[in-house]
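batch_manifest entry 22 of 60
target: tRNA uridine(34) hydroxylase
source organism: Bradyrhizobium denitrificans
requested by: lab member K.T.
priority: normal
notes from requester: please return tokens only, no post-processing; we will run our own comparison against the previous entry in this batch. if the run fails, retry once and flag.
--- input ---
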Amino acid sequence: MPLSVAAFYQFVALPDFRDLRSPLHAFCAERAIKGSILLAAEGINGTVAGTDQAIAALVDEFRHGPLFAGRLDNLELKFSSAAAMPFQRLKVRLKREIVTLGDPAADPTRQVGTYVSPTDWNALITAPDTVVLDTRNAFEVALGTFDGAIDPGLQSFGQFKDFVARALDPAKHKRIAMFCTGGIRCEKASALLLARGFSEVYHLKGGILSYLEEIPEAESLWRGGCFVFDDRVTLGHGLREQGHAMQQNVPEDPR
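--- output ---
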């Protein structure tokens, strides 16, 4: 039976994030949910897999249960499926940031760029003078990206701020459109660009996963596979499992 996979995040104040770790781990373990969840003072980020019933129970707990007490009301959530369990174990970790950029000016709770729906994305990235940035790591870009997108050559997302300082200029690059796997890295990246004086900053709502789910392949400007940080390796249009020749241990990184 196929399993349900949920990728989720929300930037939200969680001053008690350390106290949330044990009960959240227990909730998932009791339902045989596996995957990785990150907790920090700035929010939650994770991808987990389990039966439909188990994942539904977890989402209900996030949205309505006592553990988060209604604080995850804007949870960004994306579902896909897996033929077999794509994770080896369950991890709930405490972090300084749920996606590591290392620049306090990049605060998505204060400001983020303009969200662009998948149905409007093609028009934006093909418009004249739009700078299209892939904010993911270089090995992810090598497996698939959008036509015409710039690869910053990142080994880790923390290097994005250095790329911005080196390669982008608010006076020259007027319109910037960014994308990542599920949207979380673009939240931080857009907040950084706005803090550094860029005025017209856009990012793909729900990330590549939403685009691949919603846009028909015949109309798509995506080429290749979308790397996911689990044993499925890459997903294609319709969020179908593709797999890939690269079957070494999958590195860990937030969406």
